[in-house]
Write a structure and sequence with these properties.
six-stranded mixed β-sheet; 4 helices; 6 strands; single chain; alpha/beta; Rossmann fold; globular; 125 residues
């Protein structure tokens, strides 16, 4: 599954990822991949990949890093700043938009596939 996280700096993208991983049972530290571009985790029986492409430079960096291999259908890939790697990152199953408001945040969730719709249904139950 591929989940895009879109929003300005400080909107809460990494905070949401951290909360999700902890809710899935991850007990260690959840680091921001701002400088490493990718952090890998396992929790709740899932292979989780957290990408932060804010500092992503070009296609050669994508190929050299082996990122393409992470989108193998077995991993749940949460991708901050997917527009930085447009055409390289697979299409999103789900997109979460973050908007900073004067008092709090507004999240908009869009499910683009049946898998994503099923995930959202399970959250509602």
């Amino acid at each position: 599954m591929v989940i895009y996280l879109r929003g300005d700096l400080g909107a809460g993208k990494t905070a949401l990822v951290r909360a999700l991983f902890l809710a899935l049972g991850h007990t260690g530290r959840v680091k921001s991949p701002t400088f490493t571009l990718l952090e890998q985790y396992e929790a709740g029986g899932l292979h989780l990949r957290h990408f932060d492409l804010y500092r992503f430079r070009d296609e050669s960096e994508w190929e050299a890093s082996g990122f393409r291999d992470e989108f193998d259908g077995r991993n749940v890939c949460l991708v901050e700043w997917p527009e930085k790697a447009r055409g390289l990152v697979p299409q999103a199953d789900m997109e979460i938009g973050f908007e900073i408001l004067p008092a709090g945040r507004k999240l908009t969730v869009r499910a683009n596939t049946a898998t994503a719709r099923e995930c959202l249904r399970s959250l509602q139950n």
